[in-house]
Amino acid sequence: MNEKLFALLEKAKQDQTLKNMLLNTKKEKDPALAFCELATQQGFSITVGELFAEGEEYCSNLLKSCNGGATYPREGWDDSYEMFFACLERI
């Protein structure tokens, strides 16, 4: 997760109402968009594209290293959105 998501998670730890609002975004028609809009309202400007590109960029950089990169492609990358909610649900 990036710094904005960590900061939002820390804020949600202190604010039960915010935590519930974040959890409720998963019930929306477009959960990722609802999440990003709420995060932005709370002062953490996050776009849907930024949210999902983060893990992909890291994985891509591993494969194009100046020393030849990873010897095998990874099957996937960490999903910051899902990691955020996994942490949020446990606080």
Short description:
The chain has 91 residues and is mainly alpha-helical. It has five helices and no strands. The chain has one domain.
List key phrases describing it.
5 helices; single chain; mainly alpha; 91 residues
Can you give a write-up of this model?
By secondary structure, the protein is an all-alpha fold. It contains 5 helices and no strands. The radius of gyration is 15 Å and the shape is elongated.
Task: Outline the secondary-structure elements.
Blueprint: H1 3-14, H2 16-24, H3 31-41, H4 48-63, H5 80-89
The whole-angstrom Rg is 15 Å
Instruction: Please indicate the count of domains.
Output: 1
Share of β-strand residues: under 5%
What is the helix fraction of residues, given as a range? 55-70%
**What is the residue-averaged pLDDT?**
86
Strand tally: 0
The low-confidence runs, each spanning 5 or more residues with pLDDT under 50, are none
Structural class: mainly alpha
How large is the count of helical segments?
5
Largest sheet: none
Mass-distribution shape: elongated
Measure the end-to-end span.
16 Å
* N to C succession of SSEs: HHHHH
